Amino acid sequence: MKVCIVGAGAIGGFIGTKLAAAGRAEVSALARGATLAALRGQGWRLNTAGGLVTAPARASDSAAELGAQDLVVIAVKGPALTAVARSIAPLLGPQTIVLPAMNGVPWWFCAGVPGFEGVILSSVDPGGEIAAAIPFERVLGCVVHASTSAPEPGLVQHRMGQGLIVGEPRGGRSERAQRVVDLLAHAGFDATHAENVRYDAWYKLWGNLTMNPVSAITGATIDGILGDPLVREFCSAAMQEAAAIGARIGCAISQSAEERHAVTAKLGAFKTSMLQDVEAGRAIELDAIVGAVHEIGTRLGEPMPAIGALLGLTRLFGRVHGLYPAR
Q: Which sequence positions are flagged as catalytic?
């Protein structure tokens, strides 16, 4: 199988290195700048508890040079996705599968949901450019449960987790999804073939919705957020609002906010991806993690005082610090 990783950062490099090292796929990377130079010079590199994993890498900044693929894994940050979607047409052959391994609500999330027929989520796909460039029929949903970082271009540090949940966006199982799951499992991932990958995406988002932006605007790690009773109560209120939205779009969550907090607390003094982005001066993925939830809830007429406050405060923080567009 020919696999191209688009965005060989913390998650893309994690997936790309393990696939390349496993030897079952011909793995390439669409990259640029320092990451492209590192891949060309040193190949795939992944630091794990068991040592450094390496593999030769074919990397280019030209999708045309890499050519049509069987599987394209998109692992860029949300703000970069529109530009990426415009550039990957040469990677897409007649049967190419696109697997977005990204945070938050994906652009395809509401396709086929009653009441959202023909609706484009402007928070994550302004103008519908992504949906136009990547046909829905090509997409497999993917939810990542792993903690990684990129201490330098082309080098990934794995902290915990090997989980990749894959499934058809409309639900149910398929032969093509199973092929991808088998490939990932062979590479050492805890790969799951989901019956309802939309639920899995919403469940992960349910926790990230609060922890990510609150950590970004306060600088606090997970233990600090959950250790403050007032902040914990605010997070619970936002999660209850998101649970009510999920129940109306086929993603009902049975857990309570406190039960989820107990799971999250096990991470300890953990820095969320959004806090890491703030510290590195990178654009924050606010639209996919909070903005899309607010947009869906608004369309449904759900009251969202906590989510609205969270979106407004984090958006303002991002604009003041040059990490979120001033539009």
A: 204
